[in-house]
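User: I'm new to structure prediction. If I give you an amino acid sequence, what do you actually give back? Let's try with this one:
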Amino acid sequence: MDKLSYPKNKIKVVLFENIHENAAELFRTDGYTNLEVLKSALAGEELIEKIHDAYIVGIRSGTHISKEVLQKCTKLKVLGCYCIGTNQVDINEAMLQGIPVFNDPHSNTRSVAELVIGLCIVLMRDLFNKNAAAHAGQWKKISAGAHEIRGKTIGIVGYGRIGSQISILAEALGMHVFYYDIEQKLSLGNVKAVAKLEELLGLADIVTLHVPETKQTRNLIGLEQLKAMKPSAYLINTSRGQVVDPDALAEALKSKQIRGAAIDVFRKEPEDNKTPFKSPLQGLENIILTPHIGGATEEAQENIAQAVSQKLIYFINRGNTEGAVNFPNLALSPIENVHRILHIHRNVPGMLSQINKIFADRHINILGQYLRTTQEIGYVVFDIEKSYKDHIIDALKHIEGTISVRILY
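Assistant: Good question. You get back a string of structure tokens that encode the predicted 3D arrangement of the chain. For your 409 residues, that looks like this:
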């Protein structure tokens, strides 16, 4: 019998945290009209109530999808993080439930890089305090303590997408660029790698951090590391709030251990713009605090909305998982005049032979078969001829170790 995909107009899509309107438009254009867009994040039972029957959920960094949330949202098929990180999601639990998680680690790279370069100039010229003085009626036209960034040394901790972009911009402005990374990377231009973090901290006029949040990077910059920096140096953090010990930084700034800092990310950030913000770094004159705006440009948000939404749609429409952070990656194109069956399962011996036996016993012709596995799960996609019986899906679901089975067109 012929089968059709689950109607798109019945697939519930929920987007949180004021995701750029391009995302909703892309879903609607593709036929996903059962769409709800929220301006803020939700938590706890409110969040569960909102998405318990959703197939597709899109979030930014303020919505936390825990194991408990995932276990109560049994219809959820795919999750999109409209940002770089996925720390706000229990991606392992999502994987075990057969839910791929997509993000976009590329679209706001330029936005963050430009902010860092801007902060370098603002810090080196002491523009923040001069601006505050002018607003207060004070005229501080002095050159003492104001420096060009040309000829200065910038030390980049983490030479990934953002770090390497910063190195290009910094070198174009005449800066000397060094970086430290735990992995060997190809240096761009005249950029030089250093073997140890302490070495980088000791030679840089500006240290900028671009690392993910891991056990290794938690408190990466504490009092000992701040003491290794030059007294005339500046620290910039636009990566993750857990990377810098705020109390140690506050102490270093008060004691003039370093000259200044600019911090865009914090250990505890307000869930929305109405919630008060508190930090031990507040009230210090030699630090710039910004509200996690590294990637908050209209261009970046528009690009992220486009990229992540397309990945979610491709998964629902085709079974495509290319770019998923917690799932075997399969790049799949649409195909006509066949049925496509997605089988997600625990990665145990003999699984594929059991699946193939079900098709063989029922004389089902397989036109295409695609398989990828991780240590924990396997993802196999079958394109089969149009004629088959309903009970084949039940048989696939009853194979021990099966997580989920979904039939497309």
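You can read the tokens as a compact description of the fold. Here is one thing that stands out. Residues 336-409 form a domain with the Alpha-Beta Plaits fold (CATH 3.30.70.260).
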